[in-house]
Amino acid sequence: MALGGLKMEVMEEPNQEALQLGREFGNRGQCNPTYFTVGNLLKKLIQLRDVDGIPTEKIISNYAFVTAGGCGPCRMGMYATEYRKALRDSGFADFRVMLLTRSGDVQDVLMEGLKLSNKHLLMGFLTIMIGDVFTTMSLRKRPYEAFKGHVDEEMKKARIEVEAGIREGKNWKGLWNARKIIRGIKTKKAGPKPVVHIMGEFWAKTTDGEGNYHLFRFIEEEGGVVSNETIIDWLLHQIWRARWSESQKHESKFMSKAEWKLFAVEQVIRGVFGFFCKFYGVKIPLSDHDALAEDVKPFFDLHVDGGEDHMEVAHHLAIARDGKADMIVSVKPFTCLSSSGVSDGVQGKVSELYPDVEFIAVETNGDGAANFYSRIQMALQKVVHSVQ
């Protein structure tokens, strides 16, 4: 489809085949989001070459890949190196990749010939917002659907309408048609279900597939309702981080010009996202990042930057204090430095203060799903019984 004049194609959800390709062509000791995402790109390129019959030279000249990457202390900062190595070793050495980094910079990796305008970036932000709204609505409605598969089926129709609107240059028509479909989703009453909040490393907590062992659906099958964290809220945290960093450069209690600009951008994003939520009839609260930072100060040094920063601990505090969930699952790749190595060291203290909210930290590596499921199941069953 076309997005702001660019021809684009959405990648498939990474699966085990992608994981194995990533391991085959990647460096040793990477986290599984690296293997899944790098392998997923290789899988697509190999399909274009071997199945669709497109010569390698035309793939390299006519295709490019845009993705996220690059936070310093985490292995995500090595994505650029991983893409270079894997593409070179698999026969696509000159294929172009652009990494949109966590700090807001755009890092070119063999990326000549593609220019992203402000219009493209704006359209990208809007599609992320719509994706957040649709994902959240699916998670909230699916545990109460009238019959199995109903919500997935209707939400797929809604996404097709939005895509058709973008492709035809009639964005609002697609959004309106999707709204009518979503409003027609049928749900049924059910007994009380425990709310399980998912936090953790960015990719592991937002993906919905084999990369996190289909965590959302597993919790639903076990009787829970998933509370998710949106990509927009994560982006707002990045804006807060930039604004806070600017405030550390001066002693004045008044905001600088740069801080005001960042604050204005934040308010615009909140306003537009709030509009889409009202348009589709769903309430999705966005975090007050100033308040979260103030709450977490006794537990976490705000200067620690990387991964989720202080957000896991801050969200645990806020959710437990306000009673927004019955259980919290922190999911991350194996030995995730920012999450397992830093945040989890503080979470025990928060759990002591709020013992009524079950907290569990679990790691993924692409294999060993049985142990992953077992740990979550044991914790969740305690919560299910307490709610019922």
Explain what you see.
The longest helix is centred in the middle third of the chain and has 24 residues, at 118-141. Helix 10 packs antiparallel against helix 11. This protein has helices at residues 16-25, 32-51, 56-62, 79-89, 118-141, 150-168, 171-183, 202-206, 215-221, 231-247, 257-280, 289-296, 311-322, 337-353, 369-387; strands at 2-3, 6-7, 64-69, 96-101, 106-109, 195-200, 225-227, 327-333, 358-364. A four-stranded parallel beta sheet has the order 7-6-8-9, with helices on both faces. It folds into three domains: 2-109, no CATH class; 118-183, no CATH class; 195-230 and 286-387, Rossmann fold. With 388 residues, the protein is α/β, with parallel strands linked by helices. The N and C termini lie far apart (47 Å). It contains 15 helices and nine strands.
Give the helices and strands, then pairings:
Layout: E1 2-3, E2 6-7, H1 16-25, H2 32-51, H3 56-62, E3 64-69, H4 79-89, E4 96-101, E5 106-109, H5 118-141, H6 150-168, H7 171-183, E6 195-200, H8 202-206, H9 215-221, E7 225-227, H10 231-247, H11 257-280, H12 289-296, H13 311-322, E8 327-333, H14 337-353, E9 358-364, H15 369-387
Parallel strand pairs: 3-4, 6-7, 6-8, 8-9
Antiparallel strand pairs: 1-2, 4-5
Helix pairs in contact: 1-2, 2-4, 5-11, 6-7, 10-11, 12-13, 13-14
